[in-house]
Amino acid sequence: MFRYIVRRLLQMVLTFFGATFIVYALMFAVQDDPIQALVGEKPITDSQRAALTERYHLGDNFFAQYWYYIKGLLTGDFGTSMTNRKVADMLADAWPVTLRLSVMAIVIAATIAILAGVVSAIRRGSIFDNATLVVTLIVLAMPIVVIAPIAQLVFGIKLGWFPVTAGRDASLWQLLLPAAVLASLVVATELRVTRASVAENLRADYVRTARAKGLTGARVIGVHVLRNSLIPVITLIGVDLGALMSGAIVTEKVFNIPGVGFNLFRGIRTEDGPLVVGFVSVLVIVFLVVNLIVDLLYAALDPRIRYE
Hints:
By secondary structure, this protein is mainly α. About 75% of the residues lie in helices and about 0% in strands. Helix 5 packs antiparallel against helix 6 (about 125-140), helix 5 runs parallel beside helix 9 and helix 7 (about 145-160) packs antiparallel against helix 8 (about 170-185). The chain is globular.
């Protein structure tokens, strides 16, 4: 196990630097005039442009700029955005918002997926099973860029059941609709995985043995079937948590939530390279750490798995 963890940590380091290099290269390639993009239509003097160019090393080549970024990153400095704010301070403001939204989304998705998936597996071929299949296919087919504005229009504006937007200090009620929209990214997949896993275990020999011993159906499913069936689901939920934190760009933009996705959208629009690369770097770290924890959790849940 120790050798496996060390090997994974080394892989994480290589993956991190590879990901940051690619993101930095993409931002460098698409940058036209980040200074003008920052000020919009306002005029900017030559002295101001020269000062900003020198401050952000915009006159240097790509590898020189990337070296400045990595050198600062290794000392814990994520750089300064084009708005003259420390990226670390912006991260400190944005992460709690996105984390709370993502946790709410994963709780909603996991609750719906596990309950509906177990019932669908137990009642295979029933009306409920067929209905969940149709609903999951519809959810999978609709991108969140469509679901988010429709949900805001219907449930927020037309029906008035939920607040239309949510700010930095939003309550759980204000975040409920955005969290439900964000949960739509993963709920269909989790539901189908739960159904398939439970259905497979219901046909296993140990289930027939448990029933032959006279155990009740509730005990067979609640103790024996769920224990084995939820292992892949729990690992999938762990991976989805990292995906939700990085995939909240549309949701946060539509509902005006000043989280990680909202800041990333703004940084891309204004060609704010330090902001985008800094936020993506932290997202990469979170995603890699979550994946490592999920792998270790999988081994803890299933004693048959041994990492060498």
